[in-house]
Amino acid sequence: MPEQNPQARILELTNRLNYLNYQYYQNSVSEVSDYEFDQMLKELQELEEAHPQYRSDNSPTQRVGGTITKNFPTVKHKYPMLSLGNTYSEAEVREFDKRVRKVTGDEVEYVCELKFDGVALSLTYTNGALSLGVTRGDGTRGDDITPNVRTIRTIPLHLHGEDVPAEVEVRGEVFMPFNVFEELNKEREEIGEALMANPRNATSGTLKLQDSKEVARRRLSMFAYGLLSTPTLFDSHSQSLEALQRWGLNVSPTWRVCQNIDQVLDFIHEWETKRFELPIATDGIVVKVNSYAQQEELGYTAKSPRWAMAYKYKAMEAVTELLEIEYNVGRTGAVTPVAIMKPVLLAGTTVKRASLHNANEIERLGLMLHDQVMVEKGGEIIPKVTAVKTELRPENAEPIVYPTTCPACNTPLIRTEGEANHYCPNEKGCPPQVKGKLEHFISRKAMNIMSLGEGKIELLAERGLVTSPEHLYDLTYDTLFGLEKVYQDEETGKTRTVKFQKKTVDNILSAIEKSKEVPFDRVLFALGIRFVGATVAQKLAQHFRNIDALRAASEEELIAVPEIGGRIAASVREYFQDLAHVHVVERLKEHGLLLDLGELEVVAPQSNKLEGLTFVVSGVFSGYSRDALQETIAAHGGKVVSSISKKLSFLVAGDKMGPSKLEKATALGVKIVSEEEFNQMIS
Ligand SMILES: NC(=O)c1ccc[n+]([C@@H]2O[C@H](COP(=O)([O-])OP(=O)(O)OC[C@H]3O[C@@H](n4cnc5c(N)ncnc54)[C@H](O)[C@@H]3O)[C@@H](O)[C@H]2O)c1
Ligand SMILES: [Zn+2]
User: Fold this and answer.
1) Which residues does the UniProt record annotate as the domain BRCT (predicted)?
2) What predicted TM-score, i.e. pTM, was given to this entire model?
3) N or C: where does the chain have the smaller number of CB atoms within 10 Å of the terminal CB?
4) Which CATH fold would you assign to the domain 614-682?
5) Is the reported ipTM for this assembly greater than 0.90?
6) Is CATH 1.10.287.610 what the domain over 6-54 is classified as, yes or no?
7) Distance CA 265, CA 649 (A)
């Protein structure tokens, strides 16, 4: 890098780091690796020390990187929530020890803890009961996210013990375990949603959700690592950790008291690889001076305590050759590129495949075939390509030509504006999509016909016996019995036989029969409409109550449902505009699948003012939820139907009613009443 004028470089780094902080804390996005971020911060720190006159007031070296949001009440912290000084070098850990001993003298104990890679949280317990949960925010003020915090199971709502003080603050790290992270991402992939990049960003995004029920579903957890109270209750940090554990908080048992810096370094070495056995992400070790009296003597900088330091492990990386790109087609037709590399040893396992997410990622990396690439393993199962070693680019490097047609069926791919993925539109004829959709339909959370798993549904699809869900319900004993296929694993050469014997066939047929009892929301989820995951399906089912009402809903009406956005609405509309889908739904209905929620709950009859009248309800209402309005009609003796016909007595029209409905009702001469007029009818 050419020698740059320090003032300009300071300004450049300040702006860049402030921007990256904003992305990281506000949007839960990492544009560069933590290591790169920390190297830039270090460079800035050193430049500012050499040229203090150029340091800006908003320098990221002087402040905690986060911010508060407008979505939650703001709370001022009783004790500021600071950051930690960090290093990637053992020599600097020894220097830290020297600085400490200069102040405290040689009698100093350290506590080593794992540095959990999540989001810091402050909890206040008043008379033993959880009263407040706040994010770090800008260090001085944070977001009050108490309702979300209450859903985290490892955070007790009450503390237990004789010595729990009247008010105490607990600090801890909220995180998302790997298995939860992977499960959620799998769900997202299935419904065509963008994947979450890592468990830390997923945690931070989850804590900021407005819907606590969704937070609860994401199964976050927390480890407690700090205790604050006035007056202080104990003499040392280790005593506080013991107390936290006694009172019922979740303290990771991995902490250790060390008598000197060599023992600290032993701890660091010990966990360097052992940390990969843990079910959660960690990115280093936190070293803290144990005695509170000594901590006080050491004090704080503007941004972090002088009595603690984080040693961070560099991510496990390796350099290897990119051999080719494989393009996988998923259930929704989304095409995802996977890097196939020359096998290389990384964090104890041989790696040869790495995720590349989408075409943008290939472009961002500037990747070419036969490049030497850097692969990183952060603890997630599938490693990532993080950079290209352009200086090692071989002569035979070839540009990557992203396919324009589907690798499985040759149909030209499409890419919707604003979306990262390419899609194969050949939904009905593209083998991986057909197979993927069927697998989704029979999956546990959908129709739960798991006796067709493990290659059986694949075989039925291949033989052309089942290529769409409704075909399942035409299967008979005679068609299934005796089917057989031997599969061979391409890599290991091992063979596996899929065979339909009597018992298997009986199980399959009874599971198919039983699936007719699966409730409407799960059937809706099973249909595999893009962006309609299990939760969205539940919301739609509750709101519209039956498939015909959902099918008839306009985009405006869909968006009016709480938590249904434009993207989901458009996808639902698109699904039902395809007559082939309508046909599938009709056939499933004929086979007796539950495509409605059944009768409305019977509300005590209130009058017979609406007796003999039929109603269609459409749009959004100010005084009723849609369910409540339908129940009210029933309670007054009226009948709610789903489609507009000549015989219909009234269309009750709310806001945002679809124009097509209005048109149809007008054309057929159906009476249209407003919410107000309806209220007059029953008053
Ligand atoms: N990649 C990016 O774009 C980007 C952007 C901004 C920040 N970052 C990363 O975030 C870091 C700055 O974040 P930070 O200020 O939260 O610092 P930090 O994450 O390095 O350290 C402080 C935090 O560690 C956590 N922690 C985990 N275990 C702990 C334990 N046992 N004891 C005490 N604390 C524990 C706490 O949440 C605490 O707030 C940067 O150094 C960088 O690595 C990355
Ligand atoms: Zn295809």
Assistant:
1) 605-683
2) 0.70
3) N
4) Rossmann fold (3.40.50)
5) yes
6) yes
7) 81
